[in-house]
């Protein structure tokens, strides 16, 4: 797959517009901070990437002055046009923009606040990451002199010369930094109270703008590792996407401050306009309580905007002297918009559109076209790499969110420490996948015998490590739910040991079943033609994984089925999250079918097998982190919803006392055989409870109680009051056990 020819002039114009936008927003930010006397370190730091973006824009027009852009050959025009200087500008703009953004978040908190200290620590970490990137860029693929990076030597032998190191450093450090800068402000501002709900949404959306730089960072690494697939146009794509990434980093940093300045101005204008419109609201007149006076209706002319700006304009007047009694006359000062279509015409148009869509979808030619398109997309190597990368990045991102949440709440435990192992191996698998598919020759049964890192055994080891350690982490998550002495906790620990032994068994089977020479070169041709005796260990490995998945689905369902939840929706959510392991079982089933029936799938079995292995691996990591992250988000949403409901809840009204309570009390009294006098229970009014003396229930027979149907705002337990007995038989003393003593409620009961 080769990309079409890229026009340098079009790229120049597009990137220059982005450069000017980022530079302009920086000037707006600095001017606003200087005018309000609020300049701080984040404003001083942002001056460094601003100056380098200006240099970058000038060099862009000076370099790409012809269609022949050098890619593999280093530029010999001097230090200012070298690859090292380009990388230095790119990294400096990106990382100092992130440092400025972190300082902007830190300045919002008090000097002794933990979040401010955390912001300073994050600034130090980001600066160390910047130095690491500069160091690896300088030491990888050096030329003569040192600032002439020989890109042709790096890309011709990326493993030995260190070209892969640059890709790994960029994709890991940039991705981790962007994820931290997206998650950290969201966690900090989640509990902050804002005067308006839309302010919260705006601030969280602005601080989540680093997702743009995250996408461009992944795109840069994909172009670097897949330059063979893209063709000769990879040079200008790599250069332009790098420029876009650095400029977007500065743009996102300044977009937050500039947007808030504009939003504050717009909100003030909106409040003023709402104050004006408040005087032109519809007039409601209660004619029943108002003497019949003549009223004058004024109908303004012109557009609604003219009505607001010129409220004194009057075109006609009408006198109103009388109106029906007990009615309200609403006089609207604005006209209503008419519908676009009449009802019949609108329904006819909808039915016609639906019929045309139905006819079009029934054409066989369109179905054949969609089928061909689907096959072409699935056979596209670049699309396959992108889709797998997205799934891996989603799983890795959820794992980082989980670890950040547990570390922030100081709840890190063994299940969080164990999940780091599959996270590291999954990230390594993603990088190896991009390196392997940097050319059109993808291997299937013939692994690279010259490198251990590309061997089939190491790929299988990564796959099994991610799968089984995800199982172990999920089992440990169940362990921490129960108390130390609970037998469920002991059973879970035993199950963790069993899972680790099954992991060792699977690794041993993959090592000795299809061993080559040397031992880590797995001979897949022998694995395809296994005897009955050799198939048994392989079936044992697959079945053990299937049984482990089934146990991790059924066991939590049985445990949480009897658990009591305060909200019924919590039970459904917890059970659904633990049942998400069905996805890993489905991926395992597809993997097993692909492996055992490889000859029947044809040449596409390479794509299918590679996709299912990475899919199973990424879904396993995704599922174990999805449970914790989903519960964290749900808890935040529920707490916000409860606070919103409490804020909007009206004052509590008195509730009626249920008749069931009186009947239960009466039934207890009527059980005694002795004839009892007539008793009357009265509830005295108090400040916390209100009673109505006008409503009284009919008195019962002798031995019963006559209870007024008073309205109280209490439940069954609150109805209990102090019992005062005078000349009551001893058999009635049992009633006092039903009505407990609570004098502090302000209630009194007299028998």
Write up what this structure looks like.
- It is globular and about 70 Å long.
- The chain has 27 helices and 10 strands.
- It has 751 residues and is mostly helical.
- Helix 8 packs antiparallel against helix 9.
- The protein has 3 domains: 8-267, Rhopdopsin 7-helix transmembrane proteins (Up-down Bundle), CATH 1.20.1070; 381-632, Rhopdopsin 7-helix transmembrane proteins; 658-750, no CATH class.
- The chain has a two-stranded antiparallel ribbon. A two-stranded antiparallel sheet has the order 2-3.
- It has helices spanning 8-35, 41-45, 47-63, 83-106, 114-139, 151-156, 158-161, 163-189, 197-207, 210-225, 227-230, 234-278, 304-309, 343-361, 364-379, 381-408, 414-418, 420-436, 456-479, 487-512, 524-528, 532-561, 568-578, 582-596, 605-648, 659-670, 735-738, and strands at residues 283-286, 295-298, 317-320, 328-331, 655-656, 679-680, 705-706, 711-712, 722-724, 748-750.
């Amino acid at each position: 797959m080769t990309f079409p020819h890229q026009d340098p002039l079009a790229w120049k114009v597009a990137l220059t517009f982005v450069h000017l936008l980022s530079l302009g927003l920086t000037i707006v930010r600095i001017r606003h901070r200087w005018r309000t006397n609020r300049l701080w370190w984040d404003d001083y730091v942002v001056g460094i990437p601003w100056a380098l973006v200006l240099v970058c824009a000038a060099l862009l027009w000076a370099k790409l002055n012809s269609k022949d852009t050098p890619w593999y050959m280093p530029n010999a025009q001097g230090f200012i046009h070298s690859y090292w200087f380009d990388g230095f500008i790119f990294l400096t703009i990106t990382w100092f923009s992130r440092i400025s953004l972190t300082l902007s978040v830190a300045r919002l908190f008090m000097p002794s606040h933990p979040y401010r200290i955390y912001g300073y620590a994050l600034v130090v970490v980001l600066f160390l990451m910047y130095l690491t990137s500069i160091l690896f860029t300088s030491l990888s693929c050096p030329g003569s002199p040192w600032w002439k990076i020989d890109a042709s030597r790096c890309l011709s032998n990326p493993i030995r010369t260190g070209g892969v190191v640059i890709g790994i450093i960029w994709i890991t450090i940039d991705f981790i930094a962007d994820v931290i800068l997206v998650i950290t402000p969201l966690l900090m501002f989640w509990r902050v109270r804002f005067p308006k709900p839309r302010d919260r949404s705006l601030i969280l959306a602005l601080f989540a703008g680093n997702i743009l730089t995250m996408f461009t960072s992944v795109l840069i690494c994909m172009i670097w590792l897949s330059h063979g697939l893209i063709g000769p146009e990879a040079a200008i794509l790599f250069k332009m996407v790098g420029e876009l990434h650095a400029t977007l980093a500065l743009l996102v940093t300044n977009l937050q401050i500039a947007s808030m300045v504009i939003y504050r101005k717009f909100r003030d204008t909106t409040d003023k306009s709402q104050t004006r419109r408040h005087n032109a609201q519809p007039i409601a007149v209660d004619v029943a309580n108002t003497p019949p006076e003549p009223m004058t209706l004024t109908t303004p002319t012109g557009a609604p905007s003219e009505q607001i700006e010129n409220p004194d304009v009057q075109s006609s007047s009408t006198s109103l002297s009388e109106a029906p009694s007990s009615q309200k006359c609403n006089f609207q000062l604005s006209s209503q918009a008419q519908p676009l279509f009449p009802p019949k015409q609108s329904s006819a148009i909808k039915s016609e559109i639906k019929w045309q869509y139905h006819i079009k979808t029934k054409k066989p030619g369109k179905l054949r076209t969609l089928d061909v398109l689907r096959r072409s997309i699935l056979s596209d190597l670049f699309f396959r790499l992108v889709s797998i990368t997205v799934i891996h990045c989603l799983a890795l991102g959820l794992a980082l969110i989980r670890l950040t949440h547990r570390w922030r709440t100081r709840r890190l435990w063994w299940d969080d420490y164990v999940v780091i192992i599959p996270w590291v191996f999954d990230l390594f698998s993603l990088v190896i996948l991009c390196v392997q598919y940097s050319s059109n020759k993808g291997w299937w049964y013939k692994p690279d015998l010259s490198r251990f890192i590309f061997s089939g055994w190491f790929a299988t080891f990564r796959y099994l490590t991610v799968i089984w350690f995800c199982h172990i982490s999920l089992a440990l998550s169940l362990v921490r739910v129960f108390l130390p002495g609970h037998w469920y906790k002991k059973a879970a620990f035993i199950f963790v040991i069993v899972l680790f032994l099954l992991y060792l068994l699977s690794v041993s089977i993959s090592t000795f079943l299809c061993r080559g020479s040397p031992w880590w070169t797995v001979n897949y041709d022998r694995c395809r033609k296994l005897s009955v005796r050799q198939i048994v260990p392989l079936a044992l490995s697959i079945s053990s994984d299937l049984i482990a998945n089934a146990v991790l689905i059924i066991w939590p369902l049985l445990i949480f089925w009897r658990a009591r939840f305060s909200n019924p929706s919590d039970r459904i959510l917890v059970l659904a999250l633990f049942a998400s392991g069905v996805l890993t079982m489905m991926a395992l089933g597809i993997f097993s079918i692909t492996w055992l029936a490889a000859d029947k799938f044809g040449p596409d079995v390479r794509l299918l097998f590679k996709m299912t292995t990475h899919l199973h691996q990424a879904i396993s990591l995704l599922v174990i982190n999805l449970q914790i992250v989903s519960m964290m988000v749900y808890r935040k949403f529920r707490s916000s919803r409860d606070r919103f409901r409490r804020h909007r809840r009206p004052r509590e009204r008195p509730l009626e006392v249920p008749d069931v309570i009186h009947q239960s009390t009466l039934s207890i009294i009527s059980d005694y055989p002795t004839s009892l006098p007539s008793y009357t229970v009265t509830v005295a009014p108090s400040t916390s409870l209100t009673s109505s003396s006008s409503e009284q229930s009919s008195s019962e027979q002798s031995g019963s109680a006559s209870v007024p149907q008073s309205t109280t705002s209490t439940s069954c337990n609150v109805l209990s009051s102090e019992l005062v007995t005078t000349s009551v038989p001893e058999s009635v003393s049992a009633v006092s056990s039903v009505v407990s003593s609570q004098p502090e409620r302000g209630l009194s009961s007299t028998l």
